[in-house]
């Protein structure tokens, strides 16, 4: 009887919500009287109560699947194989892990493979993942964010400045309107930023990814005067000259701490971690978003959501790996100069304190790939390369790394009879030119972090890495080119190792020095 009463109460609350107009409409009419303000407050409280209930239910489901992680991953494998049935997938739903691994060995995608995949007409992908992990990431992420920053999800506390939000799963009305000042699905990026600038009381800023938030701030600096004029013009009968003056004054003081000067109450920037975001997060934290916390509700890849972030208070993202789709395997990291290839293991077989790389498989692309640089079989991992690049940038006076991309020389046919090497493209702030001495520092740092690379350089089997400085906007154009591909995924991961020749040539055409 008690359960029935609770269900009836829940249905009644939902009915009240459905009978009320959207929060955005209510907020527009709050100035007409206390009645509208009361209705907006009621709708927000009820919507939040329902969301908390849904989050608690998803929390229990996550705990149950984690307790039986082995069984959950076997079910995920069967689902991937079932969804991928066709000429290119001779495996069946009853395939075990050993047969699966033998049939699909872990490989590094070659340029030819990637060019071929880019030419195939693939089914269009949606802007967001709609699996259970993405729903869990959204609901549990909102609950965790509210626990760490209670005022962020108050009405009017958050604005999204990109057309797609960082939350992996779309929430139905009225949940999606809990705190939003802007509604990203219906507006251009410029209009979203303008609306956010008109709201000085914001407590959180949303963008789909950190690299897109970086683009927003770079665009804000470049178009600041136009935005100030638009704000000063305001809506008919509601000019905002004071806010326009505040924007001009904030921009005149430079990029460092700009977000807090524009929005003094702001606490956190919410973006979706999708790989290749480290430079953007570091640049934003050091300059425009200095003093703000960063929160990503999930770690996503082309196959789907692979990790949930339940701890917004952590300075760096800490993620719970999901036992659902995509299928996650763990590849032990090589120790020292050990050459033999290690076998992957499932989540239940992981050992505490060990370091692993992640191998992902989903139904849309039954491949098990890693992203590495290799011109002579050295397999330079992305994280190892980034460590070397970070060491080099520290030695470049006044430079701040905004973005980078790497290409094996064979893709650009740039060896010219010399030894194969890496072509490295960087976007910097604070440095307009790179001396040959500074360029050479990257190659020295690569030798420091990779004994295998050092040995190949000593023997002359690999040539020195070549560093190129690209102009502002080059990597934004690269992301636009990636998004235009038929097989474009959500979120648009920023690949640090480029294997498509046309993408590498795009960066090559934007080289300044």
Summarize, please.
With 513 residues, the chain is α/β, with parallel strands linked by helices. It contains 19 helices and 14 strands. This is GH3 domain-containing protein isoform X2.
Please tag this protein with its features:
43% helix, flat, 12% strand, three-stranded antiparallel beta sheet, 513 residues
Q: Could you tell me the strand content as a percent range?
A: 5-15%
CATH class categorisation of the domain at 382-509: Alpha Beta
Kindly name the structural category. alpha/beta
Specify the number of helices. 19
The low-pLDDT segments are 18-33, 109-129
Q: Tell me about the biggest sheet?
A: 4 strands, parallel
Level-2 CATH architecture of the domain at 382-509: 2-Layer Sandwich
Q: How far is the N terminus from the C terminus? A: 75 Å
GO molecular function, one term: acid-amino acid ligase activity
Pfam families: GH3_C, GH3_N_vert
Keywords: Signal
Protein name: GH3 domain-containing protein isoform X2
Structure description:
Residues 220-285 form the GH3 domain. It comes from Pteropus vampyrus. This protein has a four-stranded parallel sheet, with helices on one face. Helices cover 43% and strands 12% of the residues. Helix 1 (2-19) crosses helix 3 and helix 9 (210-222) packs across helix 13. The chain has a domain at 382-509: GMP Synthetase, Chain A, domain 3 (2-Layer Sandwich). The N and C termini lie far apart (75 Å). It has helices spanning 2-19, 23-28, 34-67, 69-83, 97-103, 111-119, 132-148, 189-197, 210-222, 224-233, 241-252, 258-262, 278-286, 382-394, 409-412, 436-449, 451-459, 474-483, 501-508; strands spanning 158-160, 204-206, 268-270, 293-295, 298-301, 304-308, 320-321, 327-332, 356-361, 372-373, 380-381, 400-408, 422-429, 466-469. By secondary structure, the protein is an alpha/beta fold.
């Amino acid at each position: 009887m008690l359960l029935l009463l609770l269900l009836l109460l829940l249905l009644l609350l939902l009915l009240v919500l459905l009978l009320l107009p959207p929060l955005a409409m209510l907020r527009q009419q709050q100035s007409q009287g206390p009645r509208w303000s009361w209705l907006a407050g009621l709708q927000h409280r009820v919507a939040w109560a329902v969301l908390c209930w849904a989050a608690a239910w998803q929390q229990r489901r996550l705990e149950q699947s984690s307790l039986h992680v082995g069984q959950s991953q076997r079910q995920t494998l069967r689902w991937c194989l079932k969804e991928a049935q066709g000429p290119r997938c001779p495996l069946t739903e009853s395939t075990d892990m050993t047969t699966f691994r033998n049939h699909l060995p872990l490989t590094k995608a070659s340029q030819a493979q990637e060019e071929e995949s880019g030419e195939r007409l693939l089914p269009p992908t949606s802007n967001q993942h709609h699996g259970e992990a993405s729903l869990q990431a959204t609901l549990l992420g909102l609950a965790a964010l509210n626990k760490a920053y209670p005022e962020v999800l108050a009405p009017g506390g958050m604005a999204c400045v990109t057309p797609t939000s960082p939350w992996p799963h779309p929430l139905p009305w009225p949940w999606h309107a809990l705190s939003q000042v802007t509604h990203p699905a219906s507006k251009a990026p410029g209009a979203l930023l303008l609306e956010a600038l008109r709201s000085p009381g914001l407590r959180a800023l949303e963008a789909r990814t950190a690299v897109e938030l970086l683009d927003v701030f770079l665009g804000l600096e470049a178009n600041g005067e136009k935005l100030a004029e638009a704000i000063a013009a305001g809506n008919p009968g509601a000019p905002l000259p004071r806010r326009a003056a505040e924007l001009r004054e904030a921009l005149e003081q430079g990029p460092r701490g700009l977000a807090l000067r524009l929005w003094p109450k702001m606490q956190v920037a919410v973006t979706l971690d999708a790989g290749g975001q480290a430079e953007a997060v570091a640049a934003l934290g050091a300059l425009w978003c200095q003093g703000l916390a960063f929160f990503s509700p999930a770690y996503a890849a082309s196959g789907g959501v692979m990790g949930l972030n339940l701890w917004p208070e952590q300075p760096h993202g800490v993620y719970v790996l999901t036992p659902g789709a995509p299928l996650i395997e763990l590849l032990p990291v090589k120790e020292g100069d050990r050459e033999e290839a290690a076998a992957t293991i499932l989540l239940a077989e992981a050992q505490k304190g060990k370091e692993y790389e992640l191998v992902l498989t989903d139904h849309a692309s039954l491949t098990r790939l890693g992203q590495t640089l290799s011109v002579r079989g050295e397999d330079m991992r992305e994280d190892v390369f980034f460590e070397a690049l970070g060491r080099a940038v520290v030695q470049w006076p006044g430079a701040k790394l905004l973005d980078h991309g790497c290409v094996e020389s064979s893709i650009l046919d740039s060896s010219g009879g010399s030894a194969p090497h890496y072509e490295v493209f960087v976007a910097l702030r604070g440095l307009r030119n790179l001396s040959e001495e500074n360029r050479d520092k990257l190659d020295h740092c690569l030798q420091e972090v990779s004994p295998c690379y050092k040995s190949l350089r000593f023997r002359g089997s690999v040539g020195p890495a070549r560093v190129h400085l690209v102009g502002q906007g080059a990597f934004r154009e690269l992301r636009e080119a990636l998004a235009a591909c038929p097989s474009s995924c959500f979120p648009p991961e920023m690949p640090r190792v480029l294997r498509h020749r046309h993408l590498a040539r795009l960066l090559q055409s934007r080289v300044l020095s």
